[in-house]
Amino acid sequence: MSRSPLSRSVEIISETRYVQAESPRWDARDGGLAWIDMATGSLHRGRIEQGMVVPGASVVVGAQIGAPVPLARPADGWLVAVDRGVVHVSDEGLVAPVTGDFAAPGHYLNDGGADPHGRFWVGSQSMPRAPHCGLWSIDADGIPTQRLDGVTVSNGLAFDRSGTTLFYIDTLPHRSIEAFDVAPDGALTNRRTVARVDGGNPDGMAIDLEGMLWVAVWDAGEVRRYSPSGALLETIELPATRPTAVALVDRLLVITTASIGLAEPGEADGALLGVEVEVGGAPASAWAGAAR
């Protein structure tokens, strides 16, 4: 396993500890940060100032919150996967449905993100774990289209800058990063394995400006950087056991973590962490639909 050739300083950047923080998003509209606490069904927003997250507004959206993506225009709020469908959350905290339930009964939506063409992609999981979940895209008209079936635990996804390649993690059973070609209409073809992830469960993922993939590895206490061909370039050890997801806020790698299921959480478990890296990232792509 490749360890970091550099001396990385991993900092706790939030005063608050969350049960299961997930899905950090850098908002191009105002430079802010959004993230969720999956265990409490809440969407949080804030800013990074002097190396720390300054919390802003938060709203409880639903019992099983998945992932948020910004809308394109300032003050237009967020599209959020919750329970079995997708809602719009205004900047004032008002929640309105965008879709009906499209995930199957007993399933719930998990991680997701927008592609460069303005589609919101989100996948599902269920308890107990079984390969009968899916991955969907939601166009600007709010209509979901199923893109994959046979999914077990849909987790991280990231698109290259052209939107023609999707990198995707279905955590179980193979613990792999996969890639697909993406057609202009969103159809997925040419499925292939990029890398097997050992020592933990691959979870959230982000792509940097060089096209490299940062992956949070749950239960390994690590984030890892992979090339698009699957080479492990760097491993950063964390003071938290369960990193859940990552986002690049320029050159600050923001890492959400969870304390859920840990008998004796440590100081960093459930915190947001930050690591300065050499190659930055772009803000989160926005959903192309209109505010409700």
TrEMBL record:
Cofactor: Zn(2+)
GO terms for biological process, alphabetical: L-ascorbic acid biosynthetic process
Binding sites annotated in the UniProt record for a divalent metal cation: E22, N155, D203
Gene3D superfamilies in alphabetical order: TolB, C-terminal domain
Signal peptide: none
EC assignment: 3.1.1.15
GO molecular function: calcium ion binding; gluconolactonase activity; L-arabinonolactonase activity
Active site as annotated: D203
InterPro entries assigned: 6-blade_b-propeller_TolB-like, SGL, SMP-30
UniProt-recorded name of the protein: L-arabinolactonase
Organism lineage: Bacteria, Bacillati, Actinomycetota, Actinomycetes, Micrococcales
